[in-house]
Amino acid sequence: MKRDANCPLCGAKLPSSAWLDACDELLDGEHGILAARCPACQGRLEVLAQTGSLQLGYRNGNNFTAALSLDYPGLQVEIADGRLHLRAEEREWVFVEAED
After folding, report:
1. Nearest C-alpha neighbor of 30 from the set 57, 56, 59, 52
2. Contact (Cβ atoms closer than 8 angstroms) between residue 75 and residue 69
């Protein structure tokens, strides 16, 4: 089981939970796409949260292009009403879409 992954921008090795900790904004509540800043290099990228995995990359219109696919066993994703709720390893993260 792959527990760590290198940042596609700088190569820093980070655990899956660190990527979710680095997320600071829900960009797309319908698809579960978050904005993140790498804790090591401060580079910006986007995270697509899916049950059991994270995809790191960028949106391109309605498509998401992943630079890195990261397994996250036990990650549960719930999306409802512009709210993203993630749970794994006795931790949880909640993101809410900003109002326009």
Report:
1. 59
2. no
